[in-house]
Please model this.
Amino acid sequence: MREFRFPAIGERYFAETLPCGLQVRVVPKPEFAKTYAFFASDYGSIDTDFTLDGKEMTTPDGVAHYLEHKMFDMPDGNAMQMFSRVGGSPNAFTGYTMTAYYVECTENPYENLDILLRFVSTPHFTEENVEKERGIIAQEIRMYEDSADSRLYENLFAALYDHHPVRVPIAGSVESIGKITAQTLRDCHRAFYDPSNMMLCVAGPVEPEQVLETALRVLPGKRGGVSARDYGAPESMTGHRSRIETQMEVSMPGFSLGFKCEPPERGERTLRQELLGDIASELLAGESSALYTRLYEEGLIDCDFSVGYEGLKGAAMLSVSGDSRDPDAVMDAILREAERIGREGPDRALFGRLCKSAFGRRVRELDSFENICYRMCQSCFEGAEYYDFPTLYRGITAEEAAEFIKNTVRPERAAISIVRPKNKEG
Model:
């Protein structure tokens, strides 16, 4: 395996691409007791339209999440039971663009890795076991629907985007999962769980060559094909709907405000825009900003207020969320502050502090094996090198952050999702 070193952050890893196309990275941490293995597919909830064997496919919403649930079933038992016998603690998640399976352990790292690779690469779907899971997932969907935070977030995407699949909840709907069959899961596993569309990242007190040997032994020796995805025509930069409001059992109105950003091209620009977007959002309304202080002192926001940037395939946004007695007043204040920054320019001293703080947070994240593996896979799927972030930070200027705010935080690019308390009768 080839070694890569990054002196600016004191990190290194070993990398290899297997004949089957799987990218393998090992981050040796001999001073730690825990090993963390992360096996991810470049496949998420937005990948519902794709081409398989030359045929155009459209799958129901929620398939990626349903598939994640069913992968733990194997022809010779359940993967959870296998992990328990060798001291492994496994889990998995599905996002808009990635599905990942991982295991933590303090003993038997290669046995745990063997199980992880085997169960994720072994599809075992029958009509009976697929039907058995339907009620469990439907209950999970209803739980999300009863969560004010989930409703705010999902309604914001539905308001911002006209047709991009990110406007659909990750788990789909009770109706959409009713259309998922065992064949649906087989098709999607074949389309997206080919090793050439996946990455394995292992961090901990492990030997890179033993990790490589385990992967070579378990996984197929030949590369398959990667399915082409279709997210529809590029979205306009105008919000689809200006607002979505709903009522729920909450004590204070909650809001999530979003502004459409131009989605960056694949590669280093994706990571760079993420870093820029994070700094720009903090410059606009982060805890160190004058606007945050003013809104807090006026009682318009509380400590749950947050700002940030999120980028996906074909979609990106800057968001502002929290609780407020007057969400529209917060939105107006955000727009006015963005216009002022565009007119008067950025606070350079604040920008300098924010860059140092953001860089420090990224470095501290490297103490977490979970963050290391997730960030590596995310950036790799985007065609970027995550450990290049120190160099990218140095190239971001205060003027660029102010220009990002000026171009992004505009009324025509905005949508707001609000959850208000239910009206009480009597």
Q: What stands out?
A: The chain has two domains: 2-223, 243-421. The mean pLDDT is 95. The radius of gyration is 23 Å. The longest strand covers residues 315-323.
